[in-house]
Amino acid sequence: MSAARGTATGGGKAPGGERLFIGGEWVAPDDGHYDVIDPATEEVVGRAPEASRAQVAEAVTAAREAFESWSRTAPEERAALLGRAAEVMRREFVPYAELAQAETGATTATARGMQVGVSLARFQRYARGALEPVETALPPQVNEAGPMGKAGIFGALAVRRPVGVVTCITSYNNPWANAAGKVAPALAMGNTVVVKPAPQDPLSVYRMAEALAEAGAPPGVVNVVTGARPEVGEAAVAADGVDMVSFTGSTAVGQKIAEECGRGMKRQLMELGGKGAALVFDDADLETAVAAVGTTFSFYSGQICTAPTRVLAQRGIHDRLVAGLARYAERLTVGDPRDPGTVVGPVISAAHRDRIEAYAELAEKEGARLVTGGRRPPTERGFYVAPTLFADCTNAMRAVREEIFGPVVVVVPFDDEEEGIALANDSDYGLLDYVFSADVARAFRVAGRLRAGGVGINTVGRNMEAPFGGFKRSGVGRDVGSYALHAYSETQSIVWPG
Fold this sequence. Notes:
This protein is α/β, with parallel strands linked by helices. The protein has 16 helices and 23 strands. The chain is globular and about 70 Å long.
């Protein structure tokens, strides 16, 4: 190793979260540190380590060496480890949530319920998942005598095996839940992992590593490397010892990762961008539709790929829907996420705030009508964006076609079912779409024609056992529930004579 080490045995903690976690030890970074900024206060939350390429290689080597023994552990042992880690998260729930809030700017309810709470639930889910059967018996086959041998009856099994070393690159909007959704099923299946968190909020992932270390994770099974420079993530993808890359983030970055994976024939699981269409028909319950679309303004301040940011409104209810969304947005309290009354917190950074504001300006230049928002809230500190609504939009506008990833909703009118479906499918993305209609038969009919990995009917809620992933440029593969266990495994066939 190129850097000084500190032991992580017995649940040892990284001093100030300022060391990498490699091979079961806390390692001083070769390339110094960088500041992690609270989006609400613009103050420094902590200092994150900047790994060198050599240290990323060391993390991959540690994971490679640990794979041989970890992949052969009993499922019960893997289940117990994940369960113990979940108990550490439960014990440290409040400080973990406070750190997540400081790093991401999430409201208290979101940091607790949707970040650390979801992470805890996912570790518990995959503690059970480690015990799910991995064998599928196939029907016996009768073979006649021939060049391949004597006649006989041949049995067969399809068995899921761990892929190997998985590089997990996580998103900034939810450092706890997103990392847990990769690490927990990967470990449950017997893989080892190298985690590269988003540079904006990596400290929470080190707390996850601490929880796993305290739970007894063998050295090298979990490794965490961070860095603000793109070279860290590039090295974690390109390393020869990596068998699979699991990535959540932008489509542009996903395409670069896919190119690198193609060169090495590495497995991929990619959850990329989204521009979810919400088709609201004339017979829809407008209160339900407004509340559902309104989550774009409030949930993670619109920084979520599943948000219904692109509303397609049938003309009979168009004006009432726009008015309802405007009233909803204007009632939302924007401000300090630690204040219990706050609904909309900041976005992740000044650069991202500027990007969202640039899209709002572009929408007006393209001819969209600004209904509400579009201007920076009058706050002294923090990276805030007012909930923003545009009407009179067309599918040709960049603000309608491109992922803004903020509290911005655009509304496009349509006349009939066929036009609504055509507009919804006229997109590079296909992650989650939504249909709002009192006619359930029509809603299911329309859902079947939408080119999206998931469709919500009269809801933006999710079933956490349903497969999650996208069509088109929204991703490759599916995870969540048992589908994640399949995503982090390879299928091996075993055949024998009866």
